[in-house]
Write a structure and sequence with these properties.
By secondary structure, the chain is an alpha+beta fold. It folds into two domains: about 80 residues; about 70 residues, OB fold (Dihydrolipoamide Acetyltransferase, E2P) (Beta Barrel), CATH 2.40.50. About 45% of the residues lie in helices and about 30% in strands. A six-stranded antiparallel sheet has the order 1-6-5-2-3-4, with helices on one face. A hairpin with a 2-residue loop joins strand 5 and strand 6. The longest helix is centred in the middle third of the chain and has 38 residues. It is elongated, with a radius of gyration of 22 Å.
């Protein structure tokens, strides 16, 4: 069975996050120092401008550069240490649209599994878009390991 996530991937994500948090802290400290200086010399317009710039920078940088990595890290941690299920299922199709699952872009894969309480056998599972999707054959049976609805390993 091919595992999709590893401890090395988690270490790499932690390193990237650390660099981004350090960059955020350095730029924020510089803007804060400039703000304090503008308050000391009593330039009200500059103080307002610097404080607004600090707020905009923090919101923008954290939401655009840190939050996606934090969401992806949460997925990897869940894949490595969360509760997982192994099932033998038949592959049906891949949905054409990309879904966002807990802030991570995923492909939607449809499998036929055991019937649920409504009698439906179709199961929707998510494949991380960052990982290349193997060539799955329609109608072929695969062993799928998943946590929640995210696929963390697949094999024939």
């Amino acid at each position: 069975m091919k595992e999709l996530y590893s401890a090395e991937m988690l270490e790499s994500l932690d390193g990237k996050l650390k660099k981004r948090w350090i960059l955020t802290g350095v730029v924020s400290a510089l803007l804060l120092a400039a703000f304090v200086w503008s308050v000391v010399i009593r330039m009200e317009w500059l103080s307002i401008l610097l404080l607004a710039l600090l707020g905009v920078f923090l919101i923008f940088f954290i939401e655009m550069f840190c939050r996606p990595l934090l969401n992806y890290r949460k997925l990897v941690v869940s894949a490595l240490s969360g509760r997982s299920h192994d099932r033998e299922m038949e592959y049906v199709r891949t949905e054409p649209d990309v879904s966002s699952v807990d802030g991570v872009s995923c492909l939607s894969l449809i499998f036929l599994g055991d019937a649920d309480k409504h009698g439906s056998r179709e199961q929707l599972l998510y494949w991380d878009e960052e990982i290349p999707l193997p060539a799955l054959q329609e109608g072929q049976s695969y062993t799928v390991r998943f946590t929640g609805r995210n696929i963390i390993a697949i094999g024939e």
